[in-house]
């Protein structure tokens, strides 16, 4: 780490913003997919492991902070 002059904060922020960028790209992809075919979009969202885990995490987050 010191050889590259990289801080732990840089790694944490890079991972955080990389995750945010990935989510934005996935939702952009799904938006394009939705415009092409609504049936395929609904099938993908219902059967996607990523979205089931993501929506459970969001639901837990909202319940934890009392935002629901």
TrEMBL record:
<dbReference type="Pfam" id="PF02674">
    <property type="entry name" value="Colicin_V"/>
</dbReference>
<dbReference type="GO" id="GO:0016020">
    <property type="term" value="C:membrane"/>
</dbReference>
<protein>
    <recommendedName>
        <fullName>Colicin V production protein</fullName>
    </recommendedName>
</protein>
<keyword id="KW-0812">Transmembrane</keyword>
<keyword id="KW-0472">Membrane</keyword>
<feature type="transmembrane region" description="Helical">
    <location>
        <begin position="7"/>
        <end position="33"/>
    </location>
</feature>
<dbReference type="GO" id="GO:0009403">
    <property type="term" value="P:toxin biosynthetic process"/>
</dbReference>
<keyword id="KW-1133">Transmembrane helix</keyword>
<dbReference type="InterPro" id="IPR003825">
    <property type="entry name" value="Colicin-V_CvpA"/>
</dbReference>
<feature type="transmembrane region" description="Helical">
    <location>
        <begin position="48"/>
        <end position="67"/>
    </location>
</feature>
């Amino acid at each position: 780490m010191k050889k590259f002059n990289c801080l732990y904060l840089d790694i944490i922020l890079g991972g955080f913003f990389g995750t945010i960028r990935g989510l934005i790209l996935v939702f952009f992809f799904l938006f394009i997919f939705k415009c092409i075919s609504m049936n395929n979009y609904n099938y993908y969202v219902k059967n996607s492991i990523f979205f089931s885990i993501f929506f459970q995490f969001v639901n837990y987050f909202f319940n934890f902070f009392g935002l629901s």
